[in-house]
Amino acid sequence: MSFHYIIIGAGSAGCVLANRLSTDPATRVCLIEAGPPDRNPMIHMPFGLAALAHMRWLNWGYETAPEPELGNRRLFWPRGRVLGGSSSINAMIYMRGHPQNYRDWAAAAGPDWDWPVVREIFKDHEDNRALADDHHGLGGPLTVSNLTAPNPLSRAFVQAGAECQIPVNPDFNGADQTGVGLYQVTQREGRRFSAAQAFLVPALARPNLTLVTGAQVHRVLIENRRAVGVALANREIRLREGGEVILSGGAINSPHLLMLSGIGPGANLQDMGIPVIHDAPQIGANLADHLDITVQAALKTRDAIGIAPSFLPRALRATWAYLRRGQGEFTSNVAEAGGFVTSDPARDRPNLQFHFIPAYLHDHGRRLSLGYGLTLHVCDLLPKSRGRITLAAPDPVAAPRIAANYLSHPDDLPTLLNGLKIARKITQAPAMQRFIARETLPGQQLTTDAQLEADIRARAETIYHPVGTCRMGTDPASVTDPAGRVRGVDGLRVVDASLMPQIIAGNTNAPTMMIAENIARMMLAPGS
Ligand SMILES: Cc1cc2nc3c(=O)[nH]c(=O)nc-3n(C[C@H](O)[C@H](O)[C@H](O)COP(=O)(O)OP(=O)(O)OC[C@H]3O[C@@H](n4cnc5c(N)ncnc54)[C@H](O)[C@@H]3O)c2cc1C
What we know:
Blueprint: E1 2-8, H1 12-21, E2 29-32, H2 41-44, H3 49-52, E3 62-63, E4 76-77, H4 99-109, H5 115-125, E5 126-128, E6 142-146, H6 152-163, E7 179-182, E8 184-185, E9 187-188, E10 191-192, H7 195-200, E11 209-212, E12 219-223, E13 226-231, E14 236-247, H8 250-260, E15 263-264, H9 266-271, E16 278-279, E17 291-299, H10 312-325, E18 337-341, E19 352-357, E20 373-380, E21 388-390, E22 401-403, H11 412-427, H12 430-433, E23 436-441, H13 449-459, E24 461-462, E25 492-494, H14 509-524
Parallel strand pairs: 1-2, 1-14, 2-11, 5-6, 14-25, 15-16
Antiparallel strand pairs: 3-4, 6-8, 7-18, 9-10, 12-13, 13-14, 17-20, 17-23, 17-24, 18-19, 19-20, 21-22
Helix pairs in contact: 1-14, 5-14, 11-13
The chain binds flavin-adenine dinucleotide.
């Protein structure tokens, strides 16, 4: 069998592409996913998210290299390895980012990425079951909903933000991003609505779309500087004449796969014994992520989602409510509330984001804490530090080397320190103090800037938004052109979060699906 398009990776971007490119019955599309189908019930029950970090068979479970500015700690980087990719293991927050992000993208990659264009794509995708105004769409493939049963603590967080003079914002994707509020989520009737559910499932009955799961692509086959197919562990899949291979493996795997195929920084490839087909130093560079720090508190009430014998009756009721009606506490996306503030007056958009969790959260859910607590995350939305993905071994199943270089730019630590202070202030506001017994992290004993900076270096973690490793642009040094076509090799595109020229000031799932839609439209346009 041969195909017009081979898409590598059925994640947020790959599912959108598979749907759009297979619309024409004459076009043969093959979608290849390394992970299994999304049958595990923990994927579909939103609160199951808390268990997914343990499930190594659904997760690439990457680790960064030792991070010099974080005490040489290796940070855990979960990434979905299942149908739906990271949209099947993420926290379901629906967020587009700030219009100014897309104006910056337009400056880097041309007018097709400007806010008026992408705003319409966001609206076209949307089936918003709660907000109906000019900012939102109804009837699109991606259902966006309000949480069915937000925890009282999440509402208290919003009130506490207001007590700290942060405006309450009922719609972060509306007229203004600034403020605190409850998040909207990609859920339909209380179940996770991943990219696979929204875009792939409706297209799967098409005879011209072939889905292969449990198959990791090891290499793109290239002949005379043109992609001609892909190599799996024990077979090859070929393109038809003039077809295209599209890498949608995500911001770590797409540059990794390019390098394994001989496209990337020449010296690194040679070190690994990989013949260099195209020396492209920018592949893997420009890695940006949102670094995050938390305030945690033990509660004097039992309102949180807790791990305690007293929570058992509630857990049983929550399971019943979820199974019967798609409602109740287990439809929680864990990060129920949050918001955006600007701590730096020189900035033209918010530079800090909060994620509020009505529960203890340690080590991405891998370490359980007994009792009732809360966790308030704050991250630096516009970091200036940049990292790089490189080959660590020529073996395609070995992980690449991830150097995030967090806090390597001197402006980033003061921003996060500011964020930590604001987060602490919110937890100290009356609405939160009604629930809080004591702060457990950073801990009341830490008060000076030096102490809090040391705490950040010791505890900061990713909030899961690595992007930018195959930067698109109009400049010749960019990895791809503005339509995701890899410079220097024909018939080869990257379409996923790696394309982002700069990191979005917000969560990255909806922007990644928008990227795929935008490029699919470019590919399907007459004369393209
Ligand atoms: C724990 C977590 C929580 C998050 N929470 C949110 C949130 O609440 N809201 C939000 O907007 N964003 C969130 N994100 C981020 C968001 O989900 C991602 O940015 C987005 O899904 C990235 O999409 P992608 O298409 O680039 O990659 P992915 O969705 O990761 O898809 C890549 C796919 O390619 C497959 N693949 C990779 N390599 C190969 C290969 N060689 N062969 C075959 N298949 C391959 C992978 O298995 C995967 O399925 C979160 C992410 C994580 C990990």
